[in-house]
Design goal:
heterodimer; A: mainly alpha; Ferritin; disordered N terminus; B: GMP Synthetase, Chain A, domain 3; four-stranded mixed sheet; three-stranded mixed sheet; 3 helices; PaaD-like (chain B); FSCA_dom_sf (chain B)
Chain lengths: 264, 158
């Protein structure tokens, strides 16, 4: 493929290992959050949100498929097997994305924080030395903009609404907070990814950028900033997950598991 | 855009968007390459949205239609991300057909501003509100026309 020759050398085993690990992070994050979004179907507070969350779920799962297909292209199994057939210890998603939906406030807070992170991560990948990734990212950025607009709106409105809405939002923010730092990790190969310019932003800078974007929204929403950001309890990017991921994968793969060889 | 084979493009004009049957995939702007490589018809398509569930259907319709073109023995359809589809790729004919179907074509938006409502496809009213950034398909949003008091769908500007 002439596309590949423009980037770094994919035959370099370290480049390939690091790239694959990164693609798994991207794909697994999007698959988990997309599946959680789909769980709101029929249960969201109003019909507009049923539509919105279903549409967002479709986008996120579509992005996951895109990343899994790039993995298949460089020697991994086909996208369905990668999505449905891997155990939880093989998953590289940040633990935040596997958490159960909780109430509406939790889902909004989690998604807004995740989307803000995802926008920054996509910026860090936009000039990736791996052209198929950079090209997909250019497209995905245009779609993700809508998710962020939507979640930002809900986040601020619910916080400013006062009463039960605000109380639930405050509770949700505290509940989400310990899982945030796990997002910024680039996994076991950060050095190699940076050296080879697959990514252009370190995890440390990514976290600073995230705080710079979220702080003004806290101010807008009248929420006091939480200074301390604890280290993650479990490192999802290294394959260490909460039992919630096993439940999610069981549900997600229930049809696939009936007959993994079936053609649909 | 690469130089496309006029006969193949004419045939692709008959392949319609599965969700919006008035508009062809050419008018939608998703065909980036359609060329002959001896007896092979080679087509590159760029999806409107990465997760669009109609991609496989469009692929098989393209294969079916092009295999009927004289001199074509094999059809190869590739989805590519570059150049990325943007709503500016919809042709002026395509924009007319969207309105005929009751879907507002996208209007250009500034990055800093919130999404603006396009003119209503029924009455042309420009005093619309965003009702939902998300609609029945990934590429559509729902708006509300304050002039004719009708909700309407519009293609999302991306």
């Amino acid at each position: 493929m002439n596309q590949l020759s423009r980037g770094m050398d994919i035959s370099d085993p370290i480049y390939q290992k690091a790239l694959k690990d990164l693609l798994f992070q991207l794909a697994d994050d999007e698959l988990c959050i997309g599946h959680r979004d789909s769980e709101w179907l029929g249960l969201a507070p109003d019909i507009e949100e049923d539509v919105a969350f279903s549409s967002i779920a479709q986008d996120e799962v579509g992005h996951a498929t895109f990343y899994y297909e790039r993995l298949a292209e460089i020697g991994e199994q086909d996208s369905d097997t990668l999505a449905f057939g891997r155990g939880s210890h093989e998953r590289r998603n940040a633990c935040l994305t596997e958490r159960e939906n909780g109430d509406w406030a939790y889902s909004i807070v989690r998604h807004f924080f995740y989307d803000t992170f995802d926008a920054l991560r996509l910026e860090a990948l936009a000039k990736s030395s791996y052209p198929p990734l950079a090209e997909g990212v250019a497209k995905i950025q245009r779609e993700e903009r809508y998710h962020l607009l939507h979640m930002h709106l809900w986040f601020v409105r619910l916080c400013l609404a006062g009463g039960e809405a605000r109380k639930r939002m405050e509770t949700a923010i505290w509940k989400v907070w310990p899982d945030i730092s796990g997002l910024f990790s680039w996994g076991a190969w950060e050095e190699e990814l940076l050296q080879r310019q697959v990514i252009h932003t370190s995890s440390l800078v990514l976290q600073q950028q995230w705080e710079e974007r979220i702080r003004p929204v806290f101010a807008e929403a009248g929420i006091e900033w939480i200074e301390a950001m604890p280290e993650p309890v479990k490192k999802g990017r290294l394959g260490d997950h909460f039992p919630e991921l096993n439940h999610l994968l069981g549900e997600l793969s229930s049809v696939y598991a009936l007959d993994p060889a079936a053609r649909w | 855009m690469a130089i496309s084979d006029p006969e193949l493009m004419k045939a692709l004009q008959e392949v319609k968007d599965p969700e919006i049957p008035t508009i062809s995939i050419v008018e939608l702007g998703i065909v980036t390459v359609a060329e002959r490589r001896e007896k092979l018809a080679y087509v590159e398509l760029t999806p409107t949205f990465v997760g669009c569930p109609a991609l496989d259907m469009i692929r098989s319709e393209v294969e079916n239609r092009l295999s009927k073109v004289d001199g074509v023995e094999k059809v190869s359809v590739q989805y590519v991300m570059s150049p990325p589809w943007t709503s500016d790729r919809i042709t002026s004919e395509g924009r007319k057909k969207l309105i005929e179907f009751g879907i507002a074509p996208p209007i250009s938006q500034s990055e800093e501003q919130w999404i603006q409502a396009p003119p209503c496809p029924y009455c042309g009213g420009e005093e619309g509100d965003v009702h939902n950034l998300f609609g029945p398909t990934a590429c559509r949003a729902i708006f509300y026309c304050r002039r004719c008091k009708e909700p309407f769908e519009g293609m999302k500007p991306v």
